Amino acid sequence: MADQAFVTLATNDNYAMGAMVLGQSLRRHKTSKKLAALIGPHVSEPCQSVLRRIFDEVRLVDLLDSKDAAHLALMQRPDLGVTFTKLHCWTLTHYSKCVFMDADTLVLSNIDELFDREELSAAPDPGWPDCFNSGVFVFRPSVETYDKLLQYCTEHGSFDGGDQGVLNGFFSNWATADISKHLPFIYNLSSIAIYTYLPAFKRYGSNAKVVHFLGKTKPWSQGLDAKTKEQSSGSTHPSFLLDWWAVYSTSVVPMLKEQYGDQAFHSECVEQAAEGLASAAAALHLSPPPLQPQPSSEERKQKWEQGQADYMGTDSFDNIKRKLDTFLK
Ligand code: UDP
Ligand code: MN
User: Fold this and answer.
1) Considering only CA atoms, which of 20, 51, 44 is closest in space to residue 250?
2) Dihedral, CA atoms, 257, 224, 15, 124, nearest 10 degrees?
3) Close Cβ partners of 228 (under 8 Å, ≥ 6 residues apart)
4) Which atom of ligand 1 is nearest to the CA of 9?
C-alpha cells in the first residue's frame, strides 16, 4: 500500500544510526509499506545519504519555526523541542495511515498487521500501564490533528517533559475507551520490562515482534568501552543487543563505509560493530566458537576478552547466532 508508511525520527547522527538499523530491520522482514524518516538539520550529510538509501522518504523538519503563533509559543518552551519534532509526523498527509516507531526500536518479524489498527493505537508503558508508550503507535496524518496537538502542547505542556506526556494528555481516553487500540506488549517490548518481570519474559519473550531500547543507554552507546560492559549487560537483554549489532554490522556499516569513503571512519565503525557484537556475546557468556585450525581455548578466550574477536571469520555473527540458538534451547 503506497499510502501507508512506517515513520521514524532522528535529530542527530546517533539516533540516525538507530533509524538506519530500524529501517533495515523492517526491510529484512519484508514490509510492504513505505518507510519515512523525519530528520533534524544536525544530521550529517553522509548519514542523510545512507538514510535516503534505506528509506523511501527522508524529510528535513525544522526544530523550531517562528512563522505562526503555535510555533512562537513553543519557542518559549525549548525543552519541548524534540517532542515538537515528533509531532511533525501528523503532517505527512500524503499517507492515509502510519505507524510511528522510535529510532531506538528494532523489528524482529513482519508487523504490517499493525496497519489494521486505528488511531491512536499503542502498547502500555511498563512504568505506568494506564499510559501508552509513545515509542510505537498507529496514527492518521492530519493537519487538523497536528494543529490541535500543537495547541494542546502550548497550553498544557507535557507532564513528563517529552512527547509521551503530550500524547497521553491529548489521547486521554486511551486507557478506557477501546481495547482494540491497546497493542499487545510484544509490539513494544521495552527492554526494562525484561528484568522487572522476568518470569513473564521467559514465558512470552520469544513472541516479541518489536524490542524498544528505552531509557538512557542505547544500543549504539553500549559495548564501545570495555569498562561499561558490566553495566551494559544489565540494562538490556544481551540477545536483543546482539540482534541490533548484527543488523548494524551487516546492513548499515557497509553503507556508511561507502558514504564516508574515509579510512579512519571505516576502521572506527567496523571496530565499533565488532566490539558491540563481542560485548553482547560476552554478556551471554558465550565461549568462542571452534576454530579451524584450533588455537587453545585459553588463547581464544583472551583474544575475545581483549575485544579482538575475529568477527568476520570464526567469531562471525552466524557462528555466534548458532551458539546462541544452542544456548537458548
Ligand atoms: N529523538 C531524537 N533525538 C533526540 C532524542 C530523541 O531524534 O535527541 C527521537 C528518536 O526517534 C527517539 C525518540 O525521539 O527514539 C524518543 O526518544 P528516546 O527513544 O530517547 O526516548 P525513550 O524511548 O528512551 O523514552
Ligand atoms: Mn525510545
Assistant:
1) 20
2) 140
3) 222
4) 11
pTM: 0.83
Domains within the chain, CATH numbers bracketed: 4-189 (3.90.550.10), 217-328 (no CATH)
Print the SS3 string covering 112-176: HHHHHCCCCEEEECCCCCCCEEEEEEEECCCHHHHHHHHHHHHHHCCCCCCHHHHHHHHCCCHHH
CA dihedral sign of residues 75, 81, 84, 89: positive
Which residue owns the Cα nearest ligand 1 atom 4? Answer: 11
| Mutational test site, ligand 1, from 7, 35, 58, 86, max ligand atoms within 8 Å of CB | 86
Question: Residue of the nearest CA to atom 3 in ligand 1?
Answer: 11
pLDDT of residue 224: 45
Pocket of ligand 1 (CB under 6 A): 8-12, 15, 82, 86, 102-104, 135, 214-215
- State whether residue 18 is helix, strand or coil: helix
Consecutive 10-residue averages of pLDDT for the chain (329 residues): 92 95 98 97 94 97 61 63 85 97 98 98 96 98 94 86 92 98 97 88 95 91 52 65 93 90 63 74 56 54 60 62 58
Location of C-alpha cell 579482538: 308
What SS3 class is residue 178?
coil
Q: What is the 3-state secondary structure (H, E, C) of 244-310?
A: HHHHHHHHHHHHHHHHHCCHHHHHHHHHHHHHHHHHHHHHCCCCCCCCCCCCCHHHHHHHHHCCCCC
Q: How far is the CA of 213 from the centre of ligand 2 (A)?
A: 6
Give the closest residue (by CA) to ligand 1 atom 22: 214
